[in-house]
């Protein structure tokens, strides 16, 4: 691989350029991370705030995204909705973690549903 800073060929197994000491892995990881966040965001928020009000997948099942009045959402609102999914996922994840820390071994989803998970010995 080539160093992004000095352009010299450097040992691909190293994290840092053997010539100038530049971080060769960080910028790649950072740009991949950006793509992983940006591509779904632009895809979902872009399509859902477009005239079709739906991603191609939603179009197939005749679903649209609207605001509370049934109108087309702005890109900003679609963005908020998109990143809200991550919060939901995070809460679910925390909900699962709670199983380990609560007295009755309840996850958040158990508490919400009023359920217990019992093991039979
Ligand atoms: Zn270098």
- Number of discrete domains: 2
Measured distance between first and last alpha carbons:
56 Å
Order of helices and strands: HHHH
Radius of gyration: 23 Å
Which overall shape is indicated by the principal axes computed on the Cα atoms?
Answer: flat
Write the layout of secondary structure elements.
Blueprint lengths: L25 H23 L7 H5 L14 H27 L6 H6 L8
Descriptive keywords:
121 residues; flat; binds zinc ion
Walk me through the structure.
This protein is mostly helical and 121 residues long. The chain has 2 domains: 73 residues, no CATH class; 34 residues, no CATH class. Helices cover 50% and strands 0% of the residues. The chain is built from 4 helices and no strands. Helix 1 packs across helix 3. The longest helix has 27 residues. The site of zinc ion (ZN) has 8 residues, from loops. Zinc ion binds next to loops.
């Amino acid at each position: 691989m080539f160093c992004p800073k000095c352009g010299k060929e450097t040992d691909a197994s190293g994290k840092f350029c053997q010539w100038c000491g530049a971080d060769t892995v960080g910028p790649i990881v950072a740009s991949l991370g950006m793509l992983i966040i940006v591509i779904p965001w632009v895809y979902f928020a872009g399509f859902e705030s477009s005239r079709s009000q739906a991603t191609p997948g939603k179009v197939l099942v005749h679903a649209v995204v609207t605001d509370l009045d049934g109108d087309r959402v702005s890109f900003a609102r679609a963005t908020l909705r998109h990143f809200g999914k991550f919060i939901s996922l995070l809460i679910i994840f925390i909900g699962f973690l709670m199983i380990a820390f609560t007295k009755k071994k309840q996850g958040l989803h158990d508490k919400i549903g009023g359920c217990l998970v019992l093991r039979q010995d």
